[in-house]
Each structure stands twice: as structure tokens, then as C-alpha cells.
């Protein structure tokens, strides 16, 4: 019995030694730090991305942070080239970039970008000051000055086209969400067309300082938009903003976190694991992360999966076929 016990202890010690060595070896190709591309301050990408980067850095024991960028389109380019290791993107701009249709680099197929995990849906919603008298899309006057967010952002890419489809004539303005919120309050613009996860920090700030209207799409407008663009109907719950007295009808597009496909497999595996297994922590970073759950992995029908992320999903009962992995 003593001999058997000694053998078992020796075997266990050897196993621990080998495991420890494997972990050390697995980290040998990890960078000392990482940066995630987000978007402008005042938007959900920046709040979500900077909180996520800090959370991952703390748990993996490496340095990490967020970088302010122009949003999903620019993030695709920066991650593809390796200027950034990680980024946040929306499925519409991701598809265009993958197909070589990015406005930032026409003809360049950005195919070195891999999906990591689902984030949340980006609703497209319209905000105005209450004293503007605008209560519907049809009320927006000809020549209205509309802020569409940072140039090249998801909102700037799709919302102007949507407005044109709905017959709205406007002057196009760009800027960070925080800046556009200030311009709306100061009367420098008439409308802000937001595309960001809810609650949008800039809208929450606006309704504290001013009386606002959050404009929804009617059924005919919804039908036109969903038929013409890669979006789906989305309901903004009344509880999202104190301004809303009832649920508000919008449209939305899914967001995913992405990695440069050359990032170490074990590093991406650990980052995916920490995110997918700790939703409470993610929700504490931003309420939009309520949908940052494994089941929503099926919302990615655009990007190939990073091998590290795919390994976590496949180990945990979610099927990602080999043909879907980079």
C-alpha cells in the first residue's frame, strides 16, 4: 500500500510539473502587452472595450488597454495589418472589409481577422431635443443637420443610406458621440443618428442635461430598412432610458470581438474563456454585455474563427466546424 501511495504521489507530482511547464511554454509566444481597437469616447465600444481590456489584463497578468479609433471599419483594417492585436467590429462593415469593399482600403481583402466571441447588437436609433418638435422620422425637416458619429463608423456607413431610403434630406456631420451630443444641446445640429450598444453613454448623459425624444421607426419604415440593409428589427426596452415611456422600435446589427489571426492560440483561448465564463463580470463592465454569451456565437456568419476561440467553444458544447476556422 505504501509503495502504491508513493507511486501515486510521484505520478501526481510529475503531472503537476509537466502541466506547469506546459503553461510556461504556452506563454512563451505571448506578447508582453495588447491593445484593443474600440471607437470614440462617449460610445459603447469605448466603454465596453476599455473595461474588457482591463479585465483581461488583470486576470492574465499582462498589460492591456483600449485605443480610441474610428470604429468597426478602421478596427478591421488595424487588426488585419497587425497594427492592433484585437478589435471590436460590426458584421456589416466586417463583411465589406473581408470582401475588399472597405472605404478605407478599396480592393484590400482583410482576411487576416478572426472572430473571438459575440458581444451585443448595435441598435440604430435617432435622438433629438424635445423642443425641436420632431417626434417621427417623417418630421425631420429638409436640410436637417444630422450627426452620424465618427467618419467610417457603423453609423456613418449605414445610417445616411437608411435616411436617404426613407426620403430624408440632410446635411451630414461627423464627430465623436460625446461631441455630437454637445452640438445637439448647443443647437449646432438638429439630430443625432446613433448606432451603438445600449445604453449609449452619450444619450444617458444627454437626458440628464436636456429633455430629449428618442425616435423610433414605424412599421413601414422598418420594412424598407430591413429589406435594403443587413439589419434586423430590434426593440429598445423602455427601461433603457428614463426618457422612454414605452419600448422603442429600432433595427440592429451584431458586434463581435476579433483578433489578428496570427495571435497565439492559447492566449486567445484564455481570453475567450474568461469572457464567456464570466458574464456577470462583463455586465458589470457594460449592460450591453447581457448578450455576450456563448449561445450567440451563431450570429457570426461572416468572419472565420480564431483557432483559440473555436477550441473553447468546441470544448464547451458549441460546434464550430473545421471549415469555419482560420
Instruction: Please give the CATH class of the largest domain.
Output: Alpha Beta
Please estimate the helix content: 25-40%
Report the sheet with the most strands, covering strand number, pairing sense and barrel closure: 10 strands, mixed
Structural shape: globular
SSE blueprint:
Layout: H1 2-26, E1 33-37, H2 44-60, E2 63-67, H3 72-81, E3 86-90, H4 91-98, E4 113-129, E5 144-147, H5 154-165, E6 170-173, H6 177-185, E7 191-195, H7 201-209, E8 212-215, H8 219-228, E9 232-236, E10 248-260, H9 265-276, H10 279-285, H11 307-315
Parallel strand pairs: 1-2, 1-3, 5-6, 5-7
Antiparallel strand pairs: 3-10, 4-7, 4-8, 4-10, 9-10
Give your account of this protein's structure.
InterPro entries: TRAP_TAXI (IPR011852). Pfam families: NMT1_3. Residues 1-24 form the signal peptide. The protein has 326 residues and is an alpha/beta fold. The chain has two domains: 32-120 and 255-324, D-Maltodextrin-Binding Protein, domain 2 (3-Layer(aba) Sandwich), CATH 3.40.190; 122-253, Periplasmic binding protein-like II (D-Maltodextrin-Binding Protein, domain 2). The protein is built from eleven helices and ten strands. Strands 1, 2, 3, 4, 5, 6, 7, 8, 9 and 10 form a ten-stranded mixed β-sheet that branches. Helix 2 crosses helix 9 and helix 9 packs across helix 11 (307-315). The longest helix is centred in the first third of the chain and has 25 residues, at 2-26. The termini are far apart. Residues 1-25 have low confidence and may be disordered.
Amino acid at each position: 500500500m505504501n509503495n502504491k501511495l508513493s507511486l501515486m504521489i510521484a505520478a501526481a507530482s510529475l503531472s503537476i510539473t509537466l502541466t506547469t511547464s506546459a503553461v510556461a511554454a504556452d506563454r512563451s509566444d505571448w506578447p508582453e502587452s495588447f491593445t484593443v481597437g474600440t471607437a470614440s469616447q462617449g460610445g459603447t465600444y469605448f466603454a465596453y472595450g476599455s473595461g474588457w481590456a482591463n479585465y483581461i489584463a488583470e486576470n492574465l497578468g499582462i498589460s492591456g488597454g483600449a485605443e480610441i479609433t474610428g470604429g468597426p471599419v478602421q478596427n478591421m483594417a488595424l487588426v488585419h495589418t497587425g497594427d492592433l492585436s484585437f478589435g471590436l467590429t460590426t458584421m456589416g462593415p466586417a463583411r465589406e472589409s473581408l470582401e475588399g469593399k472597405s472605404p478605407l482600403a478599396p480592393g484590400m481583402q482583410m482576411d487576416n481577422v478572426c472572430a473571438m466571441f459575440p458581444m451585443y447588437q448595435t441598435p440604430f436609433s435617432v435622438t433629438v431635443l424635445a423642443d425641436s418638435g420632431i417626434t417621427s422620422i417623417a418630421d425631420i425637416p429638409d436640410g436637417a443637420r444630422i450627426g452620424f458619429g465618427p467618419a467610417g463608423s457603423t453609423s456613418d456607413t449605414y445610417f445616411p443610406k437608411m435616411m436617404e431610403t426613407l426620403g430624408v434630406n440632410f446635411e451630414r456631420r461627423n464627430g465623436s458621440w460625446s461631441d455630437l451630443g454637445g452640438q445637439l444641446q448647443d443647437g449646432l445640429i438638429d439630430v443625432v443618428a446613433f448606432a451603438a450598444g445600449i445604453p449609449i453613454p452619450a444619450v444617458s448623459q444627454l437626458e440628464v442635461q436636456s429633455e430629449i425624444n428618442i425616435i423610433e421607426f414605424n412599421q413601414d419604415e422598418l420594412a424598407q430598412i430591413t429589406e435594403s440593409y443587413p439589419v434586423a428589427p430590434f426593440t429598445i426596452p423602455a427601461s433603457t432610458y428614463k426618457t422612454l415611456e414605452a419600448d422603442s422600435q429600432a433595427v440592429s446589427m451584431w458586434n463581435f470581438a476579433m483578433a489578428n489571426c496570427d495571435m497565439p492560440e492559447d492566449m486567445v483561448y484564455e481570453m475567450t474563456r474568461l469572457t464567456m465564463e464570466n458574464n456577470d463580470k462583463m455586465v458589470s463592465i457594460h449592460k450591453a454585455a447581457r448578450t455576450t454569451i456563448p449561445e450567440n456565437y451563431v450570429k457570426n456568419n461572416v468572419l472565420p474563427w480564431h483557432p483559440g476561440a473555436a477550441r473553447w467553444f468546441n470544448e464547451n458544447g458549441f460546434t464550430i466546424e473545421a471549415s469555419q476556422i482560420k
